[in-house]
Design brief:
With 309 residues, the chain is of the alpha/beta class. The chain has 13 helices and eight strands. The chain has an eight-stranded parallel β-barrel with strand order 1-2-3-4-5-6-7-8, surrounded by seven helices.
Length: 309
Amino acid sequence: MSAFDLPGSVRIREVGTRDGFQNEPEVLPTDAKVELIDALARTGLARIEATSFVRADVIPQLADAAQVLERIEVPEQVSISVLIPNERGLEAALAHRERFEEINVFLSASETHNRKNVNRSIAESLSGLEAVLARARAEGLRCEGVISTSFGCPYEGQVPAERVLEIAQRLRDAGAQEIGFGDTTGMANPAQVRDFFELARRRLEGVELTAHFHNTRGQGLANVLAALQAGVESFESSFGELGGCPVPAGATGNIATEDLVSMLEEMGIHTGVDLKALLACTRRLQELLGRPLGSHTLVAGPIDWHSAA
């Protein structure tokens, strides 16, 4: 794919309702989570990461995972996913098997970040996740493996692409049909992103490659363009630019879904998302949180070419 041969459409997974909510200092009420997920599911977003079955004492913001799953009402065409940390989390999720279609498992490409995040080595994480993926596939679930710090680590610096791809190949061989590559603390640059995904496409043929960028240093949408130029057609983002990383300090949010949709649609790349409906969700979130959010499109609004003329 040449630099100007971009895809005609992309797939977007909304992760704010998990990645975003878990990084909020306060616990958002279950009623509010259900309201927002139901609203997002009616914007045209086809994939939503709703919650995670993690220990309540570790991430109290997601302690209501079961209640959220049981109460949301989304259109049939919307695929709900849950983040699964380990076999225990999978067992808890499977008690609500009819309420979701996909699972996401995760680990870091950096040993230091992985230990700080989940208190395991990469090898230990892979061993556990291979068992999770095997069980999930047996249950008929679609599986994504997410690799954090794929483009750099605040503790170790550069993360070799070969290490990231070796982890990705392990996840693929264990049953992951999709691999997400996370720029967890916003260290990626467009040239690096383009080179990485060109290599990943050659090495991971048949796997859906997903880009997950953070806007920590303001390069999130530039990295999206670089990924598009490398042939990526799947992205993860968070309404209102919610999110971040529990470690380290200063790791701010994901790229805003409304900014991503606005840019792609203006470029003629179909997302299937109603931007005005999505912005209504973000405005409601802003009301519930009681603070301004970082989305540029939320402030500026959609481009109105009729008014501009």
